[in-house]
Amino acid sequence: MSGxxxxxxxxxxxxxxxxxxxxxxxxxxxxxxEGRREQAKGDxxxxxxxxxxxxxx
Length: 57
Known about the structure:
mainly alpha
Protein backbone atom coordinates (compact mmCIF):
# COMPACT_ATOMS: atom_id res chain seq x y z
CA MET A 1 0.00 0.00 0.00
CA SER A 2 1.27 3.43 -0.82
CA GLY A 3 2.48 5.18 2.30
CA UNK A 4 0.52 8.34 1.51
CA UNK A 5 -2.72 6.52 0.78
CA UNK A 6 -2.27 4.30 3.83
CA UNK A 7 -1.82 7.35 6.01
CA UNK A 8 -4.87 9.06 4.51
CA UNK A 9 -6.97 5.95 5.16
CA UNK A 10 -5.90 5.76 8.79
CA UNK A 11 -6.43 9.48 9.37
CA UNK A 12 -9.93 9.30 7.87
CA UNK A 13 -10.79 6.30 10.00
CA UNK A 14 -9.49 7.91 13.20
CA UNK A 15 -11.11 11.27 12.50
CA UNK A 16 -14.38 9.59 11.67
CA UNK A 17 -14.32 7.56 14.87
CA UNK A 18 -13.63 10.67 16.93
CA UNK A 19 -16.48 12.59 15.27
CA UNK A 20 -18.86 9.68 15.76
CA UNK A 21 -17.98 9.37 19.45
CA UNK A 22 -18.27 13.13 20.01
CA UNK A 23 -21.59 13.25 18.18
CA UNK A 24 -22.96 10.44 20.32
CA UNK A 25 -21.65 12.03 23.52
CA UNK A 26 -23.35 15.35 22.87
CA UNK A 27 -26.43 13.86 21.21
CA UNK A 28 -25.68 15.32 17.77
CA UNK A 29 -26.80 12.65 15.30
CA UNK A 30 -25.61 14.69 12.31
CA UNK A 31 -22.04 14.75 13.64
CA UNK A 32 -22.20 11.04 14.45
CA UNK A 33 -23.41 10.27 10.92
CA GLU A 34 -20.63 12.40 9.46
CA GLY A 35 -18.15 10.40 11.51
CA ARG A 36 -19.54 7.10 10.27
CA ARG A 37 -19.36 8.41 6.70
CA GLU A 38 -15.70 9.40 7.14
CA GLN A 39 -14.87 6.00 8.59
CA ALA A 40 -16.51 4.30 5.62
CA LYS A 41 -14.51 6.51 3.25
CA GLY A 42 -11.30 5.50 5.03
CA ASP A 43 -12.29 1.84 4.93
CA UNK A 44 -12.98 2.08 1.19
CA UNK A 45 -9.63 3.76 0.55
CA UNK A 46 -7.84 1.06 2.53
CA UNK A 47 -9.70 -1.73 0.70
CA UNK A 48 -8.81 -0.19 -2.66
CA UNK A 49 -5.13 -0.08 -1.72
CA UNK A 50 -5.26 -3.66 -0.42
CA UNK A 51 -6.62 -4.82 -3.78
CA UNK A 52 -3.90 -2.91 -5.61
CA UNK A 53 -1.27 -4.48 -3.34
CA UNK A 54 -2.60 -7.98 -3.98
CA UNK A 55 -1.99 -7.52 -7.72
CA UNK A 56 1.55 -6.24 -7.16
CA UNK A 57 2.72 -9.39 -5.39
